[in-house]
Amino acid sequence: MRRKAFSSVCAHQTNDSRPDSRGCPQPYWTPPHYLRLLLTLWLVLPGRHNFTNLARYGPISDRTHRSWAQKPVPWVQLNSTLVLQAQDQQTLRCGGILGVDAVFIPKYGNHTPDLASYWSGCQGQSVRGLEGTCVTWIDPATHQPIPLSITQTPATLPVGQSRVDFYATVTLNTIAQLPDQLKKQVQAVVGDAYYAKLNFVARVVDEGQLPFIGKMRKDANLKHLFTGPRTGKPGRPRQYDGKVSLCDFSRWDAIPWADESMVYTVVAYSVSLKRQVRVVTVVWPGSSSRRMEVLFSTSTTMTAATIIALYRARFSMEFPFRDAKQFAGLSGCQSRQVEALHSHWNMALMAVSATRLSQLKHQRASPLVFSMEDEKRRAYNAFFAERILSILTQEQTEQKCEDLLADLLSLGVKAA
Fold first, then answer.
1. Are residues 331 and 403 in the same domain?
2. Which of 99, 164, 184, 275 lies deepest, with the highest CB count within 10 Å?
């Protein structure tokens, strides 16, 4: 009874059918139809986002969901399509950055693959669990983030390869899968201080052909470039003119800033990155210990204001992680299969992105006040109302109507 009444989602299925293990005909779902069904259910589900709960509210069994979770999905292309459609609708601006960050996902037990100790920003220490590396499209003008793909970090890596090398590989793979129309809009790859390492920055700049913007340590080893005249003497020309001081800014270009801070910038040679970079230091005076942030870009022609704006836009990628953990079941996958974990994480982030873009499209006020909890409540109310209407629009006998109402009232109820 419940499957026949589920008209809103089943309307997208094909007319073909295949027998299940008991010989009963079941609807045959193509990948686009199944993904549409899954996205609908993901927003409707109260409680845990697992295969059993999906089967309680949807027209297919948990076994079918498990089977689909093992199949590969082009997540980068799907989320890139969302970005391009939002740009066509003028919901997002053209041009953006790619934010890179690792997401810690708590996981208990001993049989989940790639369990290891990873850094948890919330706890400020390394904790046993899982980790995913996420590359996010961010609109610097509106600070709206759209995660493109999240990939699980392996616990063990080949000899001679570090986790930073793996993060660089994931980033380059994501860049390679971007459609040409979106790839031309990427202004830079942005990461926090952890990614300011040679084996990450060099690969992104040299192989990805994109500038990198990041954050440096306050004791970074930098050298001034020598700009004086040539002496004409034999030997290698002089390249550097002393060490850059982060306490004395007399040799830097000073730029007044809005919030009573001062911005200093200089093009210098980074010893650790082995390349010239534009360094931007933001200093907030007036405290006993002077607070400062040292940002940099591998593009020496990029202005200081652009570097600050793009780096500050990077933080908005943290909001989809928060919403996905609290309301989209990012941390609730109960499968032990690597493919299922990959599918679950990407589906959770895609549900948040689709909901955010839907609110952006219909917003009346600016800036957007996004609430994933409210959208899930609206989706469930609409789902339940449609179930009621599907009963009322049909002529039913008294007994059949009672059966349908009993089925409706037991929607999602767990077996005792």
1. no
2. 99
pLDDT digits (tens, 9 = 90+) for 329-353: 998 888 888 999 999 999 999 999 9
Question: 372-392 and 318-327 helices cross at what angle (nearest 10)?
Answer: 40
* Together in a domain, 123 and 261: no
| Integer Rg of the chain from CA | 26
Whether residue 206 sits in one domain with residue 217: no
Residue 411's pLDDT is: 61
Which domain covers residue 265, as residue numbers?
A: 212-301
Output the pTM of the full model. 0.85
**Amino acid letter, residue 359:** Q
Residue 174 CB coordination number (10 Å): 26
- How would you classify the pairing of strands 262-270 and 222-225? antiparallel
Question: What is the predicted pLDDT for the residue at 285?
Answer: 73
Cα–Cα dist 393/404, whole Å? 12
Indicate whether 193 and 310 sit together in one domain: yes
Domain count for the chain, please give it.
Answer: 3
Sorted by sequence, the CB contacts under 8 Å of residue 71 that are 6+ apart come out as 31, 339, 343
* Same domain, yes or no: 179 and 297: no
Instruction: Concatenate the DSSP letters of all residues of 153-222 into one string.
Output: PPSS--TT--HHHHHHHHHHHHHHHS-HHHHTTEEEEE--GGG-SHHHHHHHHHTS---EEEEE-TT--E
**pLDDT greater than 70 at residue 111:** yes
C-alpha torsion sign, points 368, 87, 330, 192: negative
Q: How many degrees, rounded to 5, is the angle at CA 131 between CA 133 and CA 158?
A: 80
Pair of tokens at residue 277: 């970079």
